[in-house]
């Protein structure tokens, strides 16, 4: 073993021992920590413990808590409370929209989705395709942007839904949603967008962006896991994905997750997207600027002009992403190599394949996603760790 490798290992071990003191989390697109506004709220939320469908006083307290939360969340996106259906997750909301197409139109329908959708769109779409539905998948350009003309060219008389993710979780690319919506409206086709990575980071005004369906999730914007929501412009036309107790006005059975719903509303009431952007944008600039100074042969992935301000996907030539993430983990820094929703998979993330990155680079891409609690020191330490890990892996 060369002296150089010995020194690297000793240095990494030394940094790792320090890292035990401070863990640095740069995986906000996978899930966020809870918003501090919740710290003192849990005892109050716990008082709404009763079954919200029960008619007694305790049940009514829980019901009122849910309805008040619905109003807060609806007002955050400029919608009406009755247009929101609470679900267990964004995955469930996405499944519900796709199931709705099949329930209403059966196997004669045609559906258009982008090639950058989350698996909770892709897999139900693939299921209804197996039942006869025609599907067009619009692939992005090599930077991850969907071309509106490609969607226009795919529309047929049978098209019953267009679904395009607002911002991709793996590479952060933002899609031209207002333009795609205008196209859908011109052709009288319902439009759905998965806004999971958008919610909380940017404003959403459904009075001006008149989509038919929108998917939201709590745990990507500082609320707990176990709560999501489906916005439906016309909820009367919606069909339930889970049947049973007729909860959520018959649109989603299952006793509501009252505390998580209350927490979701509380967090959004404390969310100021522009303040979050003002905090995170300079940190991302620090990361991008210093990456070029500290790391040789790196390349950015995805369209940088249309990218979430908290997300940076990049690869380092000759450095395996799994090895890099493992080294960073040892050094106390949490980063992702693809979608955390499919962790354990050694396959390149779906979006990486969709943008047709050269095969040699597909296993080199890592994602750093920043958030409300990221500091300049986190960025500094991550850059030092990235540079050291990359050198070590290259020389191993
Ligand atoms: C864009 C997007 N949609 C949907 C989901 C699924 O969210 P949930 O964990 O709430 O099911 C995720 C999770 O990573 C996501 O990033």
Descriptive account of the structure:
The chain is α/β, with parallel strands linked by helices. It folds into two domains: 3-35 and 272-395, Aspartate Aminotransferase, domain 1 (Alpha-Beta Complex), CATH 3.90.1150; 37-269, 3-Layer(aba) Sandwich (Aspartate Aminotransferase, domain 2), CATH 3.40.640.10. The chain has helices spanning 3-19, 42-46, 57-76, 90-105, 119-130, 148-154, 177-186, 258-269, 273-294, 321-330, 350-354, 359-362, 376-395; strands spanning 24-25, 84-87, 110-114, 134-138, 159-163, 191-194, 213-217, 228-232, 298-301, 311-316, 333-334, 365-369. It has a seven-stranded mixed sheet, with helices on both faces. α7 links the parallel β5 (159-163) and β6. α3 packs parallel to α8. The structure holds pyridoxal-5'-phosphate. Residues 89-91, 118, 120, 165, 169, 194, 196-197, 217, 228, 339, 341 line the site of pyridoxal-5'-phosphate. Residues 89-91, 118, 120, 165, 169, 194, 196-197, 217, 228, 339, 341 line the site of pyridoxal-5'-phosphate (PLP).
């Amino acid at each position: 073993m060369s002296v150089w490798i010995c020194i690297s290992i000793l240095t990494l071990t030394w940094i790792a021992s320090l890292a035990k003191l401070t863990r640095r989390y740069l995986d906000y697109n996978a899930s966020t920590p809870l918003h501090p506004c919740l710290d003192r709220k849990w005892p109050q939320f716990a008082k709404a413990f009763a079954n919200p469908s029960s008619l007694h006083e305790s049940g009514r307290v829980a019901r009122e808590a849910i309805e008040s939360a619905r109003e807060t969340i609806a007002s955050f996106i400029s919608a009406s409370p009755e247009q929101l259906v609470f679900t267990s997750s964004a995955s469930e909301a996405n499944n519900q929209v796709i199931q709705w197409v099949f329930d209403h139109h059966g196997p004669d329908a045609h559906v258009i989705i982008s090639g950058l959708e989350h698996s909770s769109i892709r897999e139900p779409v693939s299921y209804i395709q197996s039942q006869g539905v025609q599907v067009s998948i619009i692939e992005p350009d090599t930077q991850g942007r969907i071309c509106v003309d490609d969607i226009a060219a795919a529309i047929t008389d049978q098209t019953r839904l267009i679904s395009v993710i607002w911002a991709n979780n793996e590479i952060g690319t933002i899609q031209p949603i207002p333009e795609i919506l205008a196209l859908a409206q011109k052709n009288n086709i319902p439009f759905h967008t998965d806004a999971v990575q958008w919610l909380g980071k940017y404003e959403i005004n459904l009075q001006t962006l008149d989509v038919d369906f929108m998917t939201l999730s709590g745990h990507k914007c500082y609320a707990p896991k176990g709560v999501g929501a489906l916005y439906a412009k016309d909820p009367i036309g919606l069909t339930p994905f889970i049947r049973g107790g007729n909860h959520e006005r018959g649109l989603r059975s299952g006793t509501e997750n009252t505390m998580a719903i209350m927490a979701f509303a509380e967090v959004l009431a404390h969310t100021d997207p522009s303040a979050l952007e003002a905090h995170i944008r300079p940190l991302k600039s620090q990361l991008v600027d210093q990456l070029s100074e500290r790391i040789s042969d790196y390349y950015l992935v995805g369209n940088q002009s249309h990218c979430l301000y908290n997300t940076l996907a990049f690869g380092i030539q000759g450095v395996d992403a799994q090895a890099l993430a493992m080294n960073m983990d040892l050094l106390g820094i949490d980063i992702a190599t693809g979608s955390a929703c499919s962790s354990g998979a050694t396959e390149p993330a779906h979006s990486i394949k969709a943008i047709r990155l050269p095969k040699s680079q597909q296993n080199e891409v890592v994602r750093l996603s920043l958030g409300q609690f990221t500091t300049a020191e986190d960025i500094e330490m991550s850059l030092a760790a990235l540079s050291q890990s990359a050198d070590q892996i290259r020389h191993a």
